[in-house]
Amino acid sequence: MTETVLPDVTVRSATAEDRPTVERLWLMFRHDLSAFRGDLPAPDGTFRSEWVESAFTRPGWAAYLFECGTRPVGFAFVRGLDGPVRVLNSFFVVCGARRRRVGLRAVRAVLTRHPGPWEIAHQHDNPAAVAFWPQVAEDVAGDAWTRELRPVPERPELPPDVWLSFRVGAAGPGHGTAR
């Protein structure tokens, strides 16, 4: 089977007009996470979505939409833009765009828009995330990143999340502590 080449990835701030698209992508994202978190949809078929609301309305948050050509292929929510550390709160690429460097190109674009210290969490039981996020940290920070296990707030039954910390900015790699 020949791999289809996708057009360049466009990463842009999501607008109020993009919110319905992001909400549909959010359902796919939460469905993917349900495999690792054991979450079930609400009776109406939706998943909790307070982070969507926050990304579009709260100070210190930003929502980004990823597109290949005219097609939406993912999103990112960033929080902490008004604080000392930026947090990649949510990141998603649709299955049809994975394994084509779309995620790496998109996350680079998001991270470099907000220089400074960053934290990114992922689930230890998610093999794709376990492979992807350290690659991102190394790509943007060289060997100057750390990994830490932290309990999931209000979910003691779940294994701890893996948190990666590093710095993005004009100074480049070399800031922070090595693994």
Describe the structure.
The protein is of the alpha+beta class and 179 residues long. Helices cover 30% and strands 28% of the residues. Strands 1-2-3-4-5-7-6 form a 7-stranded mixed beta sheet, sandwiched between helices. Strand 4 (86-93), helix 3 and strand 5 (116-123) form a beta-alpha-beta unit. The longest helix is centred in the first third of the chain and has 19 residues, at 19-37.
Strand order of the largest sheet: 1-2-3-4-5-7-6
Q: Looking at the chains present, what oligomeric state does this protein adopt? A: single chain
C-alpha termini separation? 38 Å
Total count of helical runs of at least 4 residues: 4
Decide which structural class fits the backbone. alpha+beta
Helix content: 25-40%
The description of the largest β-sheet is: 7 strands, mixed
Order of helices and strands: EHHEEEHEHEE
Low-confidence stretches: 171-179
Total number of β-strand segments?
Answer: 7
Using brief descriptors, characterize the structure shown:
179 residues; alpha+beta; seven-stranded mixed β-sheet; 4 helices; 7 strands; 28% strand; disordered C terminus
In short:
The protein has 179 residues and is an alpha+beta fold. The chain is 30% helix and 28% strand.
Topology overview:
Elements: E1 9-13, H1 19-37, H2 50-57, E2 62-68, E3 71-79, E4 86-93, H3 102-112, E5 116-123, H4 127-141, E6 145-150, E7 161-168
Parallel strand pairs: 4-5
Antiparallel strand pairs: 1-2, 2-3, 3-4, 5-7, 6-7
